[in-house]
Structures are given as C-alpha cells and as structure tokens.
C-alpha cells in the first residue's frame, strides 16, 4: 500500500514530528480495515480500543448502556450507528429500513442528529454487520459519519423549487460529500463481503477534481488521493447554505460555503467561512469554542479545488500529536486569518477574491406547511430533541412510518433535530395533517417557541462522555424556565436554550442565549450571551450550577432583563450588551422581597441639534419606528458603551 507522509510545519518531510497513538492505528489499518475486519467475526461482545477507532470511520461508536451497569459484571455493550446523508436527505426506502432495524436490532426508536443524520442505538456487536448491510442495500450509508475525515455535510432542509439558491446548496452538499468520501474498498469488503452497492453516479467534475493534483492537494497513486494514509488530524465538518439562512449554524463549522447567485438566480460562486468548532474540555483553557472567520470568495468553477486546498491545509498542518488541539479552529487561532489564507492560496494556486457582503442572518426551523414553488408542499414536523418514538399519547414514530409508507414522500433532517417531509401532492396535504393530528403531534403554532428553538444531546445513558443528563431532563428544565418567566411577568418571552451532558458541544450550546454544559452529576456550567440568529459566541458565566438552584440563579437575571432591556432586545443580546459584571452586580444585590422595579413611565426631556433631528426623521422613515424609540435606543447604546469603556479604563489603571 502507498504510505503518505505526515507533513510538519517545521519539517516538510515530517521526520521530526511527534504524532499521537491514533495516527499509528490509522496507518496500520490498511485503509480502515484492521483490526476491525478480523474482530467483527470474533465471538466477543465488544471491540478492542484499536478496532473501536477504525469502527468510527465506518459510522459507528461502541457504547454501553450506563443504566444497566452492575459492579463486577461486564458492561452492556451496544453499538450506535449514524447515517451519512448530505443535506439530511433520506429517501422513503431508507427511512422505512431504518425504522424496521430499530425494532429488529435496536431499542425501538431513532434519533435525528444535529448534523442532519439519523442515529440508531442499541445494536449488539453480533448484529452490526447485518444492520450496516441493510442500510447500504436500502440506498443509505454510514461511511464517514464519524471518524477523522469529512463528516455529514449540512445544507438548508427547505425544498423551494422556485428559489434556485436552495437547490444549488443541496446539490453542492451532495457533490462535495462525494468528493471527500473515503475511496477505500474496506467499507464494502467488511459490511457487504466485497459486494458493491448500487450507488448514484458521481458528477464528472467531482471525479476529475479528486484525481487532479493541484499544488500538492492530492497524493498520486494513493488509495486515498485526498486523505492519504493517515486521513485527517480530527473530525472535519462542512455546510453549504444560502445568504441569510442560518438553519445550519454556519459559524460553527470547519468550513461553510455560502451560495452566491446573480439576479437571475444563476450560480456565480461561494463565500467562504472557516475555523468554527464547538468542542472543548472543562478546566483546559487551551481548548475553546470558536466561530468561523470570513476567508474570501471563490468562483463556481474553482470550488472543488478550493475545498481540496482547505482540506490539504488542515490535513498537512493540523496538530496530529495533541488531539485536543487538532481541529482546524486551532490552526486559524494559532496562525491568524492572513497566514491561513496565504497557505490555503499556495495549495489553491491563486489569490482568493474578497468576501462578498451578505444580508443579516436568520435562524429558520421550517416547521409547518410551505408551498414548494412547483405546486407541491413540504411540512416541517417538530420532534423534541430529535427523538423519533411512540411515547404515551405521542405516536410520532407510527405517524412517520404510516405517512412514508402510504405516500412515499422523501424527507430531510434539519439541523435542529426535526424532520421535513416534502414533495407532498396538494390533494394529500389535508390527509397528512390529519394523520399528524391523530398521532398526537402538536402543530408548530401551538408549540412554545422556546421549545421549538431548544436542542439537547442524547447524553445518558448511552454516551460514554456524558457526565450528567441532557435529553432526558431538558423538557423539565424548559418547563421550569417558562414558569419562572411567567412569574416575573415575561410570559411570552423566548430565547435559544441548548443543553449538553459534557463540554464536547454536540448540541452547540456555546451559540445559545442560555447554554447548559454538563460538568458534574446534576450540575452545569452556564453560558450566556449568544445571539438569536446563532452568529455570536456565548461566554461562560457560572462554572458550576446545581440544577436544583436554577430558579434562584435565573430570577435576578430575568428581572434585570425585564427592567433594563431595550425595545425588542433579546435575552442573549441583553446579556452581551450590559456586560457580565453588570449582571453579577445586579444578581448579588437582588432581593425579590424588597426589589422595586424602575418606573418605566418616568420621562425626562432632552434637546438635539437641528441636523441631528433631520437625521432622526430619515431614520423614522427608513425603520418605521417612533422617533422617541430610536432616540432612546441610541442613547442607551451610547451610555452602555461609555460605561463599559470607563470600567475597562478603571480596571487598567487599578
């Protein structure tokens, strides 16, 4: 087999570069075969550590059911399988196969993931090959859903046939997924005993790009022309979206491409964001969440070479010794954007064009009914925390199975763990809505907006990294938050809440307005200040909050927000604007029994010069808001900045 070197920043040959133990496991695997292939057929309940690492590349994690742990007995080992489906696309045949597999080999339910895939939990090692084979035979794949390579590529789940940019985003998510798909035959050898599955023919430009050795982006004569022997230093995550649509959490990805079209809807090129990532480790300050930077713009004909150049930059210069430091976000952080861009351009072969201006981003969940633009419809179905199951009066799994079987409609998983069913004939719309109603699925306009926007990772009992609960407790947590908001006279307020059972950030809590990050049993690190449209990173506010102290922690924050917010200001924006020092000062002095809110009807008269007054009149016409409101907001913003600057100056002098 062809061995490809690991390049060092200081030594192009890589001769003096230390690497982690996992790099040796990948190198000795014979392109993702061993020891997985051998151990799969051994009569054991679980895989060795080395095989587990290779198993990830095939889309599976080895877990154990922590609810079933008994001291002195072997763990209840189970496998989790994750699908790779770019843009969340799942054809009817595949969904029905996954549903059946969940009964035959799993726990009787499925989970929609935050990367638009499906997870199947509870599979015994002895049933793993049959499960993967069934997925492949039904037009699915798990290859590359985990491991040190490009993961599932995200795209907006909306099906707008009359908005070309959405179709382009989904098309390029598919094509880039093909470009970066592992080329080893190991997947079919292991799971289908060497038989090739029926696959969709790749676009000719994708095939050509994979072989085109553009300034060192490709390893000639290698089984893996883009990845080489060692694949990537760590996981690599991408998204393709359209201007203004942040349904994919664009700033959390290693790379996000933004489709740029002309007035006629014709593709011109892509804006490039790079360097985002959520994973971190408690008490390890060298690990941190980061949002992506604006890198530049690339013409449509060069996009595949651009993607290869980014992959090559991270492949060759990413940290292969300290896995905590191996994501591309650390390369951007350590180098800075300019050095990263220069290295990227050396692989790309020419300068990037400047990043093009974009409209404001907005989070979209696409729940409810939408006309596609071709006479057909799609409907977004709410699924709390992505759980597809039948529980009590909620028969979500039964409803989806019935609808897909009867109407043969495809679906797309959303980045917020919901499902979009699409290509629905107008004559079937009423019947499908009736099925949803009869199976207890709440209509979107009747779901609390805070619940609609919330996310939680699976955590306990299956995830080995979880230190506390997440998915199983967030319904209760959201109920408590809603009750407290009502208590402080904010009954209709809502904001983005996300929760994880550990700091790895699978539910992207570091972008939330209120983020819960597990750090001990029944205890969470609290993050505040993310933006409603997920474009600003939150910050850690409290290191350890016992969950039974939630109300006493949140009440002063909500009261301060209620009495000092600007008109229309969200909770996350408020926390970011007023500063954490102000939040802590108010909370420390807050006593619910004695606190008196300020009188909102108390007004003072101030004057402005005539030229300022003229500008205010222009602002009124442009924004459609009262002059008094615009003036009050502007003054409040100025005073907040003034106080923050003076606090900073005072601290520096001290």
Strand order within the widest beta sheet: 1-2-5-4-12
Strand % is 15-25%
Runs in which pLDDT lies below 50 for 5 or more consecutive residues are 8-15
The percent of residues in helical segments reads 25-40%
Can you summarize the main beta sheet? Answer: 5 strands, antiparallel
Indicate the overall shape: globular
Strand runs, count: 21
State the distance separating the first and last CA atoms.
64 Å
Radius of gyration: 26 Å
Average pLDDT works out at 93
Q: Notable features of this structure?
A:
34% helix; single chain; five-stranded antiparallel sheet; 21 strands; alpha+beta; 654 residues
General description of the model:
The protein is 34% helix and 15% strand. Helix 6 crosses helix 8, helix 10 (328-335) crosses helix 11 and helix 15 (474-487) packs across helix 16 (550-564). The model is unreliable at 8-15 (pLDDT under 50). Strand 17 (455-456), helix 15 and strand 18 form a beta-alpha-beta unit. The protein is globular and about 80 Å long. It is α+β, with helices and mostly antiparallel strands and 654 residues long. The longest helix has 27 residues, at 627-653. The strands form five sheets. Strands 1-2-5-4-12 form a five-stranded antiparallel beta sheet.
Write the layout of secondary structure elements.
Blueprint lengths: L20 H8 L7 H5 L8 H9 L2 E5 L12 E6 L6 E2 L1 H13 L5 E3 L5 E6 L4 H10 L26 H16 L6 H6 L12 H8 L26 E4 L13 E7 L5 E8 L18 E7 L3 H15 L10 H8 L1 H12 L19 E4 L5 E5 L5 E2 L1 E2 L2 E2 H12 L3 E3 L5 E6 L4 H10 L10 H5 L1 E2 L17 H14 L9 E4 L13 E7 L2 E6 L10 E8 L3 H15 L6 H8 L1 H10 L20 H14 L3 H27 L1
Parallel strand pairs: 6-7, 17-18, 18-19
Antiparallel strand pairs: 1-2, 2-5, 3-15, 4-5, 4-12, 7-8, 8-9, 10-11, 11-16, 13-14, 15-16, 19-20, 20-21
Helix pairs in contact: 4-12, 6-8, 9-11, 10-11, 12-13, 15-16
């Amino acid at each position: 087999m062809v061995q490809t070197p690991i390049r060092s920043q200081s030594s192009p040959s890589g001769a003096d570069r230390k690497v982690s133990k996992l790099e040796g496991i990948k190198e000795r695997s014979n392109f993702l075969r061993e020891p997985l292939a051998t151990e799969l057929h051994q009569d054991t309940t679980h895989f060795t550590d080395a095989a587990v690492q290779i198993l990830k590349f095939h889309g599976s994690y080895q877990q154990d059911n922590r609810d079933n742990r008994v001291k002195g007995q072997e763990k209840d080992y189970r496998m989790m399988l994750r699908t790779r489906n770019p843009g969340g696309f799942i054809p009817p045949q595949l969904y029905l196969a996954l549903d059946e597999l969940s009964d035959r080999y799993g726990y009787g339910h499925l989970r929609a993931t935050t990367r638009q895939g499906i997870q199947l939990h509870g599979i015994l090692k002895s049933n793993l090959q049959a499960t993967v084979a069934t997925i492949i035979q039904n037009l699915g794949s798990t290859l590359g859903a985990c491991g040190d390579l490009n993961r599932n590529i995200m795209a907006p789940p909306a099906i707008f046939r009359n908005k070309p940019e959405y179709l382009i985003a989904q098309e390029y998510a598919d094509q880039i997924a093909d470009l970066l798909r592992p080329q080893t035959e190991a997947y079919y050898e292991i799971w289908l005993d060497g038989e090739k599955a029926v696959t969709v023919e790749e676009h000719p430009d994708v095939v050509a790009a994979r072989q085109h050795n553009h300034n060192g982006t490709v390893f000639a004569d290698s089984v893996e022309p883009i990845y080489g022997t060692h694949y990537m230093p760590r996981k690599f995550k991408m998204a393709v979206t359209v201007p203004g649509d942040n349904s994919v959490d664009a700033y959390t990805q290693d790379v996000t491409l933004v489709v740029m079209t002309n007035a006629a809807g014709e593709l011109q090129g892509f804006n490039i964001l790079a360097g985002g990532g959520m994973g971190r480790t408690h008490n390890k300050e060298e690990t941190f969440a980061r949002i992506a930077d604006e890198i530049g713009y690339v013409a449509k004909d060069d996009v595949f070479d651009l993607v290869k150049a980014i992959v090559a930059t991270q492949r060759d210069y990413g940290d292969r010794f300290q896995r905590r430091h191996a994501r591309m976000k650390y390369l951007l952080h350590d180098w800075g954007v300019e050095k990263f861009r220069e290295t990227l351009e050396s692989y790309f072969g020419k300068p990037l064009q400047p990043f093009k201006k974009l409209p404001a981003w907005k989070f979209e969940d696409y729940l409810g009914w939408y006309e596609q633009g071709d006479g057909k419809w799609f409907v977004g179905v709410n699924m709390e925390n992505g759980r597809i199951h039948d529980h009590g009066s909620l028969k979500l799994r039964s409803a989806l199975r019935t609808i897909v079987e009867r109407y043969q409609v495809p679906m797309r998983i959303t980045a917020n763990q919901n499902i979009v069913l699409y290509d629905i004939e107008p004559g079937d719309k009423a019947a499908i809505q009736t099925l949803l109603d009869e199976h207890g699925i709440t209509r979107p306009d009747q779901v609390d907006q805070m619940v609609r926007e919330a996310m939680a990772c699976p955590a306990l009992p299956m995830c080995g990294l979880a230190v506390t609960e997440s998915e199983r407790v967030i319904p209760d947590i959201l109920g408590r938050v809603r009750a407290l908001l009502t208590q402080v006279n904010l009954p209709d307020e809502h904001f983005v809440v996300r929760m994880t059972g550990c700091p790895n950030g699978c539910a992207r809590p570091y972008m939330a307005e209120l983020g819960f990050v597990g750090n001990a049993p029944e205890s969470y690190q609290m993050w505040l200040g993310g933006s409603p449209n997920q474009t600003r990173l939150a910050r850690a506010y409290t290191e350890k909050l016992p969950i039974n102290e939630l109300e006493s922690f949140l009440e002063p924050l909500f009261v301060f927000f209620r009495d000092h917010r600007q008109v229309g200001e969200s909770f996350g924006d408020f926390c970011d604007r007023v500063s954490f020092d102000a939040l802590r000062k108010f909370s420390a002095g807050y006593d619910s029994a004695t606190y008196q809110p300020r009188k909102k009807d108390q007004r003072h008269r101030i004057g402005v010069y005539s030229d300022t007054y003229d500008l205010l009149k222009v602002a009124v016409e442009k924004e459609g808001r009262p002059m008094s409101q615009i003036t009050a907001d502007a003054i409040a913003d100025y005073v907040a900045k003034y106080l923050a600057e003076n606090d900073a100056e005072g601290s520096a002098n001290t």
